[in-house]
Every structure is written in structure tokens, then in C-alpha cells.
Design brief:
Mean pLDDT: 93
Shape: globular
Structural class: alpha/beta
Strand order of the largest sheet: 3-2-4-1-5-6
Helix content: 25-40%
Length: 168
Amino acid sequence: MPAAFRLYLLRHARSSWAQPGQTDFERTLDDVGYGDAEIVADMAADRGFVPSRVLCSTATRCRQTVEPFLRAADENLDVRFMDTLYTGNVETYRAAVAGNGDAGALMIVGHNPAIHELFFSILDAETAERAAPHGYQPGTLAAIDFDAVPTIGVPQEGRLVALLSMTN
């Protein structure tokens, strides 16, 4: 039975430390982060993981992480950059998922701790811990299927389809 909804959770890849005069928001990926983002995007493409909508934090490191995924996507892909994914908590991310259930396959590109908390809250504890025993590492992409479109206030457990990462 095909899933009613697929969620892709992508944490930004490894970033550099802020340079003098640079804000956290402006931090860029380091060389390892750029390479990891390219490799994970290729792994996702090889598996046919294609979102129909992308919600991406406006932070520089998230924009840089999603770029390889966008190059491989259809030019008509619905991409939305959201400041709230930079500053938001897990409830902000839940609301973003619930508010975009019409997408069918949604990718969220964001930050910890919100990505980590969302991942661990929508999978059964044993699956989440086995998949990410050291937490939700930079550059990690999860594909999670749901039998129903997630809605606010109705907890739903997803099924982990894959966890792609250079660090897990």
C-alpha cells in the first residue's frame, strides 16, 4: 500500500564556525559539509527520493545544503524559504509539516534541535535510536512514510524508509 504522505527531513550539512563579524545565520558549510551534501543528494537521487515541495530555512548553511538536491530536481519544484525554520522549535516544524500535507512528499531542511526532536517523536523509540544512535547528525536525510497526512494535534507515527548520511 503506498504511503499517503512522505516526509524528508534534511539537517544542514557540517558548517564552519562563524568568522569575526559573521552572524550564526550567515555561517557557511565547510569543505566536508559541501562534499557530504553532494554525496547525500546523489544517494537520494539514486533511490528516487524526490520531494514535491521543499521548505528550507533561510540560513546560509541550509540553502547551501539543499542546493545539490535542487539541481537534481524538476525546475518546477515548489521551494519555499522560511525564516521560521531558522528560529523555530519542534512545534514550528510540526506545524510546517501539517500545513503542507497537500504536497504529498515534503522536504524540510533545517536545524537541530528541532530536526532531531521531530525525527525522534514521529518514529517508534527503538527504530529512531537504532537509526540515529548518536543523534541526528549534520547532513542526514531521512525518508519517512505516513499512512495519513500529519495534522496538528493528532500524533502520528511514521515508518522509516531510509536514513542517508555520511556520519551515521
